[in-house]
């Protein structure tokens, strides 16, 4: 079993592909499709923002967990993984956000999207 909770969660989510939608919330999301998963991710992002505007920073934590769970479901639905995101972050490592912004293409694409 993986040491990291995100890796274990990702593996559990992958196992739910094709599972009975009545027995698993994750499977029900896969059955509803990409647009619904993306909509749920947006709702969870909004709930995270609302928590962030409140007085109790600890209220952000469960919303952030919902957000990350739904992001992992979206990645899995698209045939992607945390590994892909880790690689993207590794490519950016050491490149400051202000430098990256200054080097953007006229179309505004991040450096990593250049052919
Ligand atoms: N981490 C999560 C997790 N985080 C949030 N959620 C669910 O995400 C939903 C989001 O809450 P909402 O109130 O917005 O959802 P809802 O109104 O019930 O859903 P909709 O009808 O709007 O789609 C809730 O049903 C939560 O239980 C999660 N469901 C599952 N997991 C993990 O996934 C594993 C597999 O779960 P199942 O696929 O259900 O077996 C679990 O063991 C957990 O480790």
Automatic annotation (TrEMBL):
One of its GO terms (biological process) is L-histidine biosynthetic process. The keyword Hydrolase applies. It catalyses: 1-(5-phospho-beta-D-ribosyl)-ATP + H2O = 1-(5-phospho-beta-D-ribosyl)-5'-AMP + diphosphate + H(+). GO terms for molecular function: ATP binding; phosphoribosyl-ATP diphosphatase activity. Its EC number is 3.6.1.31. InterPro entries: HisE, PRib-ATP_PPHydrolase-like. The keyword Nucleotide-binding applies. GO terms for cellular component: cytoplasm. Signal peptide: none annotated. It is found in: Cytoplasm. Pathway: Amino-acid biosynthesis; L-histidine biosynthesis; L-histidine from 5-phospho-alpha-D-ribose 1-diphosphate: step 2/9. Gene3D superfamilies: MazG-like (1.10.287.1080). Keywords: Amino-acid biosynthesis, ATP-binding, Cytoplasm, Histidine biosynthesis, Hydrolase, Nucleotide-binding. Belongs to the PRA-PH family. This is Phosphoribosyl-ATP pyrophosphatase. It comes from Sphingomonas palmae.
């Amino acid at each position: 079993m993986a040491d990291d909770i995100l890796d274990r969660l990702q593996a559990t989510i992958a196992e739910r592909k094709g599972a009975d939608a009545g027995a698993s919330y994750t499977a029900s999301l896969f059955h509803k499709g990409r647009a619904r998963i993306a909509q749920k991710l947006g709702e969870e992002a909004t709930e995270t923002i609302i928590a962030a505007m409140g007085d109790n920073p600890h209220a952000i934590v469960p919303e952030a967990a919902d957000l990350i769970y739904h992001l992992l479901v979206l990645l899995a639905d698209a045939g992607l993984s945390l590994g892909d995101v880790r690689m993207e972050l590794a490519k950016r490592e050491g490149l400051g956000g202000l430098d990256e912004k200054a080097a953007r293409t006229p179309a505004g694409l991040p450096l990593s999207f250049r052919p």
